[in-house]
Amino acid sequence: MKKVKKFERVEVINVGLEFLYDELVKQGIGAVNVNWAPPAQGNQEMLNILRSLRSGKGGTNGD
Amino acid sequence: MIKTLIKQNFYQDSVKLMLLSRRLSKMEEIENVSAIMATCSNIDILKMAGLYTEEVRKASPDDIVVVVEGKTEKACALAIEEAEREIEGRSPGGEGKDISGEEEESPKSLAAARRRLPGANVTLISVPGKYAFDLADQSLDLGISPMIFSDNVSLEEEISLKKKAEKLGLIVMGPDCGTCVIGGACIGFGNKVKQGNIGIAGASGTGIQQLLCLLYNGGGGVSQAIGTGGRDLHKEVGGISMLAAVDLLEEDEDTRVLVLISKPADPEVEKKILQRVRSGKKPAVICFLGSGPRPEEADGQLCFEPTLEEAAWRALQLAGIRLQPGRSYIRGLYTGGTLAYEALYLMKQKLPEVYSNIPMEGIGKLTDSMVGEKNSVVDLGDDEFTKGRAHPMIDPGLRNSLILREALAEGTGVLMLDFMLGYGCNGDPAGEAAESLRAARKKAEEMGKSIRLLGHVCGTELDQQDLRKQEATLRELGVETYSSNAAMVRAAIEYGKREV
Q1: Which pLDDT does position B315 carry in this prediction?
Q2: Model's pTM, two decimal places?
Q3: What CATH number is associated with residue B133?
């Protein structure tokens, strides 16, 4: 178990509600918004397949 | 005249759809609009609103549905045209803004976002709950601590993420984590406050907001406020994120005093957390709502306070801030969960027959979560109300629709309301409630009924909604305002002793 890393200057990746990203930008926080849509058009079976593929690869890229 | 638009396999977040509904409803000769993702719970809402059409029946949860009701066919057609233009213009693949302020296509994955912002150290996740786990997991793989704003994430997923984060030296803030303040930056819901020497670790979003405001308004400042998610102190989760937050605050040289807040914790988890705090050097105020004062456990380093208000006062003292000096039923309609919890905690000590939709020892369960009984408090931010719908701190529409009925209910003499300000929160919660509050007051007068309307605005004058303006709006509407939730509840209890 590692000791949790201290936050220095905060920079945020936002994924989901876009207005939360806008609120970060208003504060001058370094932020980037992900243009997100439900993967596999929300199909649960496909989601499970994608999840198992990702974990099979070691889950290192997040692409 | 009703017209329906189904956009198959299109997605927009609940706040964008709420804004679209509002914009369309302001078009000429349009009477009623609903723009939703076609999830089961949203379809139920359409049915209640009388907007369920034959076309809606064929929609699936991944479709956007827009139903408009208007006076003429032409008005409805124009509104549908506008909706289609808006939806197609933004999704899929809409353009985003980056930190340089230049228009640039937004990244479509966390990894691509990380390449755009190599110093990213927090991922703020607010997608529908069933997708949040994968994103949080990817974030951990990228070495970035996730803040999961989303609710409806399973307990198993939460445990798995937190155990993984623990191994990696990261922290999972959430799920259902509304508020964090890190290095002066508000992430999610949060109030603009001064930087200072009080650090907060909280398993409670509105609890953190209440503390931020009480500390600021009492002359203090905050170093960091780390949200852990409401279930973190449950036995199964083991307080993993709270322990990490305590470590962070102990290491943080700007933090002089710790405040830990939560609803009641599992006894073993609580023991572990208190041990961790005691192993550090900094004084700490513990406010686990509902666990009561425990003078026997207090020592030079730890003290226990029963309410958020008392915790704030004690923290200010420890931080070296000098402090500035019959019977009718009570109903509370809350947008903030922890404030609702605090209200119930205070009410159950003084009043019989207290009911709520949220579970608490000594509190009865409401038969219908949306209908008050005797003395009652409804938490409208509870999961049952937020499936497919924006949180009431963003969209107070549901709360506003309940004000009239609750204020006029037989035997009710006092109605309590909270108004949450800050980043992420509704732009004018007091103004949005105005119509309902006026209607309640007028109808009560017609009925010869006395009703006291009480409000607490949880905010600061630096917030974009401006605490003073919001309070002034409420006072103009005949609402008595209080500087803390606990003060409002105590006043309500006093008023409740008088006859209607």
Answers
A1: 93
A2: 0.74
A3: 3.40.50.720
